[in-house]
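Morning, I've got a small favour to ask if you have a moment. I owe you a coffee for this, so here goes:
>
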Amino acid sequence: MRPSEVLFQGTCPPVSIPACDHYAGSEKLMRKSLALQHELGPVFDITFDCEDGAAHGNEEAHAHMLGALIASDDNRFGRIGARVHDVTSAFFEQDIAIILQHAAQKIAYLVVPKVESVIDVRNAVALINQHAKKQGRDNLPVHVLIETHGALADVHDIAVLPQVECLSFGVMDFVSAHYGAIPGNAMRSPGQFTHPLVMRAKLEIAAACHAHGKTPSHNVTTEIADTAIVADDARRAADECGYTRMWSIHPNQIRPILASFAPQLSEVNEATAILSQAQAVKWGPIQHDGKLHDRASYRYYWTILQRARTSGMALPAAAQTIL
């Protein structure tokens, strides 16, 4: 039995996907993102975008283009997804059908935006499955954008759906949905981390994800020139809100996000020492540096190693047998 199966009996182990989700809308930006992924490795995901990426009147051709690119040999790591048009759009099903026609076997996930309820998500998943099965793909992961009042109200019911892997917060649409009751500065820092209604939404999403073993993905930072702001937003998203993943909208944001979400080397070494000692006694209680540890703390340290691996950190040799 694998350590994760021992440690998470009766609970939901967290989904392990990269801490950065980089969005690209045009073919030029998609190819630049692919080149960077080739350089850095599968430490960040790329989401090709139909919703905001397709020019008016070019929706069908855009879906064919990105589907073919996902299916191509340039997708070396299988860590590319796609955001489709929203569920009320005439292009929603068309996007799904075209993308999966090209890339059902290689696409990592589909992102569904602007849902209003868990019913919307169930219907979207059913439609995705219908088209995926035609192409021989089962259980394609689905990521859901939480950016409406209705989606936030149903967030726990959405998170419990087995095929839903990740919930992302869409701060701009969420703030706009309050029609001026939330000030515009709550779409960016520091307001996004101080306004009570925005923080409530962030915390509800994170709590729902962690309750059901899903990944909470933090909203974008619109600042692209000052990477220190990006890094600070990512740090606050992780430390203050419990997020384990964040959007990037510019290549300059990827490295700061990865660095902010990665654990410290001292944490990785401590986790390796504790879990190695625990593994030697078949996961019974141990003492380490004068402190008692059992499976409750082992789960925490196991997630430290998972975060380190997905961020691209070099792990101690002993950690490899634990993961």
User: Anything to note?
Assistant: The chain has a mean pLDDT of 95. The longest strand covers residues 164-169. Residues 226 and 252 are 9 Å apart (CA to CA).
